[in-house]
Automatic annotation (TrEMBL):
SUPFAM superfamilies attached to this UniProt entry: MIT domain
Chain ranges of the MIT domain: 1-75
This protein's name: MIT domain-containing protein
InterPro entries, per database record: MIT_dom, MIT_dom_sf, MIT_domain_contain_protein1, MITD1_C, MITD1_C_sf
Keyword tags: Coiled coil
Residue runs in coiled coils: 56-83
Domain of life: Eukaryota
Keyword rRNA-binding belongs to the record: no
Amino acid sequence: MSLQSTAGNLLQRAVELDGKKRYTEALICYQEGLQVLVDVLKEQDGEKRVYLRAKVEEYMKRAEQIKELIEKLKREGNFHEQIHVENDSIGHSYNSIFSRFLDQDVDNIRIEDPYIRTHHQCQNLVRFSELVVKKCTQVRFIELITVNSGAEQAKWLNEVQNSLLQRKVNLKITYSDTLHDRQITLSTGWIIKIGRGLDYFKAPQTKFSLGTFDLDLRPCHETTVDIFHSNTVRNK
């Protein structure tokens, strides 16, 4: 695939997401598409260069408008973005859902999820923690609130706790028998609510199926992801 085709696909996706008001995703696609398109522009001349320069300016203007809109909605306490994950769909790894909110400004995270109980659910916590450690260079504290389901769960969570401590991240585990809601709150104010919590992936068909390790290739259960900013939650 040529660089121009790559840029075109990214920018087309940006326009689609923009139309669905999935602004944070659209902004990432605009930015990535523009980076590629600028590289293409450098190699062109004549009418094609003029045309591509105009497209770059058009998409840059829209990207700036979206950035300003996101900040405006956050200030007003009206930010809400929703993603519908369809049954058996792929491309919804933790990286795809969370990474645009995970950066060096995040220093603590609160995870509320009653379903961090079984072996695979505790492994989901490990996968999410791996992403956090890579993306959030200043994170020092994670709080997990979940339901107590016995000694095996405690053993697995203790192992996660010890592993995070080696990365200078403290994991505090709190048990609640009444917890039902599932959400992840970042110190920067972003709140991500997933209907099924972290446990929205289907089991791989076999241990050698695609998607066993790369969660972007793993089919999902149907769920809804709602993204808010803390001002929105406080005002409600």
